[in-house]
Amino acid sequence: MSSEAPAMFAPACPLPLDGGDRILLGHGSGGKMTAELIARCFLPAFANEYLDKLDDQAVVAVNGSRLAFTTDAYVVTPLFFPGGDIGALAVNGTVNDLATAGARPLYLSAAFILEEGFALGDLERIVASMRAAAAAAGVLLVTGDTKVVDRGKADGCFVTTTGIGLVEHPQQISADRARPGDAVILSGPIADHGMAIMAARADLGLETPVTSDTAALHRLVAGVLATGAEVHCLRDPTRGGVATALNEIARRSKVGIVLDETAIAVREPVRGVCELLGLDPLYVANEGKLLAIVPEADAARVLEAMHEHPEGRDARVVGAVVEDEAALVVLETTVGGRRIMDMLPGEQLPRIC
Amino acid sequence: MSSEAPAMFAPACPLPLDGGDRILLGHGSGGKMTAELIARCFLPAFANEYLDKLDDQAVVAVNGSRLAFTTDAYVVTPLFFPGGDIGALAVNGTVNDLATAGARPLYLSAAFILEEGFALGDLERIVASMRAAAAAAGVLLVTGDTKVVDRGKADGCFVTTTGIGLVEHPQQISADRARPGDAVILSGPIADHGMAIMAARADLGLETPVTSDTAALHRLVAGVLATGAEVHCLRDPTRGGVATALNEIARRSKVGIVLDETAIAVREPVRGVCELLGLDPLYVANEGKLLAIVPEADAARVLEAMHEHPEGRDARVVGAVVEDEAALVVLETTVGGRRIMDMLPGEQLPRIC
């Protein structure tokens, strides 16, 4: 492991990186072990031009249209947390994976796996939350499925949402398009979602509650695209956080990324919970933040457009893309040091989404 | 409950129909309790012209194209069974839900929920099986997701597959389109899948093994459409079996359906297991059978086309659509009696798919 993170902020890595011959929690982290599982198990089997891009969605051609297509399983625990629940998370997460292709989200499906004995009232709360999130995002849930497994064979409720969106711009937005000289823009303060979940689990009794940032980002993305800027990469830094998302982009684009720690905002109560739990906010999941990588010359107008949206009011340039054959993500720290930020190696926060 | 099924063949119904305030296994049966859950929980929240049709897929308009869109969660146990596994089932099931809209299947997504400790070798077997099924069906798996939950919070491996297909014919194929005078065509012998699963679970030590019929039906459907016949309804009778699928059609179309028991084939070893377990094959899941409802005048050419495909070699007319305000499905039995076949009331075979 090449990370030089100080101990307090080192992502927990209690598991062997290779995972042996069994699935470990780290394989679901969205970090290095997930990437290893994908590389070992899924890519060799299904290799095709769409999957191989390793974006959070596929953009496929159908009858002359470019469609974005994305799926996510949600297994978050607890199901209800400050700022949201599994239902809102599932809808917004899928909308965001369409949005980060620059697509206009159109239709969603939802598949529920319920545990025998799950309270119908809780299901109704989740469904009401999905309804509200879908209505807010302007998408229709048009098809679904429900399965029930015996008690003890699931954990209340899992939801898998899949989305279809229409790509109406001519740009190729993908993790392999970052170029030296590009600016890295982040839409707001980080680590809210992950820390809201952890605080809810640990019942920390915080004076200032930490709430999830779950939100749909497609209007923010539409605003960015409407500037006419050349947009190279868009990502919502969920599992594995900003550090992992930028590592994926650096590797796919074969570039380095230098981050300015002073520019990366973390709300005070969120920073407090991170320090309490010994977690680095750069590795913590967000569910309503956007990373945009655009040519430096376009950064000002992209920022201006983002500032007009509630989800982008605090957007800032937080870093730059540089030439680097080693594809490293380097943090220039507040105290003037430089720290290599690797992908999240193992599991930091299981079942965060 | 209006069913007059004799005791031996009565679907098991150990659960109260309304389910109280908790999710019961019967809510995942695909029968009456599932319909109640959908009517109580999902339809009021998400009501829209697509979902309200209650078909196994939505057909949506995107940029001038008609797309079929469908999702299914697979929770079958055991994961590996004679004739298939959860991977083949997930791919074929999703292909079939596209096919029964008369769509050409194009792209699939897959979301895995894995239990910590699940054997990587088993995951690789499942993925290899998905790859083979996707290749055989000519579809591409283009995007996916993997989540891991802690040990004891899932049951090895759940797979949710979602599919997109292109509807290239001008017909409106839907459960509400059956008309009095239509013929009911069934593509082959029933109950193979459900009984293969039950035999595998019970380790019955059968002399003649019962194997799942899991298969992709889109080529069979394409053959039917190519005849130029007017196709009113297509269904693959999975959970809840032929009886439940026909009840859904009867209710949605506000017609009656009369079935001829002598025309409905059940392989001998399958019938044997059904009798051993006291199950009615008409309520048992199939994973590679097609129900087609077409005008009587078109039945002969549809049958002829089906006979040319391996999946439809044994296709027969098994019944007729009649006027009936009560929307009953009636079985004319081999001994000359008449039996009302209601929807599967509770849970007969949990986790069959």
What does this protein look like?
The structure is a homodimer of 353-residue chains. Chain A has 353 residues and is α+β, with helices and mostly antiparallel strands. In chain A, 28% of the residues lie in helices and 24% in strands. The first copy, chain A, folds into two domains: 55-167, 60s Ribosomal Protein L30, Chain: A (2-Layer Sandwich), CATH 3.30.1330; 182-340, Phosphoribosyl-aminoimidazole Synthetase, Chain A, domain 2 (Alpha-Beta Complex). Chain A contains eight helices and 14 strands. A seven-stranded mixed sheet of chain A has the order 9-11-8-12-10-13-14. The first copy, chain A, has a five-stranded mixed sheet with strand order 1-2-7-5-6, with helices on one face. The model of chain A is unreliable at 1-17 (pLDDT under 50). Chains A and B meet through helix 1, strand 1, strand 2, strand 5 and helix 3 of A and helix 1, strand 1, strand 2, strand 5 and helix 3 of B.
